[in-house]
Design brief:
With 187 residues, the protein is an alpha/beta fold. It has 7 helices and 8 strands.
Amino acid sequence: MRILLAEDDAVAGQTLTAILTAQGHDVTPAANGAEAWGLWQITRPRIIVSDWLMPEMDGIELCRRIRNRPPGPYTYFMMQTVRTGLGNFLEAMQAGVDDFITKPIVPEELIARLNVAERILGLREELMTLEGLLAMCSYCKRIRDTNGAWSSLERYVEARSGARFSHGVCEDCYEKHLRPEIEGTKT
């Protein structure tokens, strides 16, 4: 798995890189949140392990920026921190952090949490694949939902996204259907 590691402490960064590399991960290190942000935009790793407190851009701001990007493959965000308390936890969760690991890092705990991250990413991919398979009537183009009910394509999409539909007529359908109808009523 490709992992972006945002850590401003050089010794901690080298230690984490060694742990992750030994587990077979491809690790890209970043010395601060701003560097990590630039690398994420280019490489789009599936997992980020980020320190909370870093110069230039902290881990919370990095997470917020990633979550505010247009949808794409999901990035699992693990925050490593010495911070404790409900307020810090809630701030991080509201920013979109998926998991926390307390410093100093225990290698076995990091490995276990990354296994969970990989499982979650795998489930998300499976879900996206299954959501991409829709039962559609060959004739009327209605969609069958998970309850077995049939609804129009427009209603199905509107119920599952922010999309709203307006209708028009393309040039081909105008010529094929509407023009003959209009010309037929004029005579």
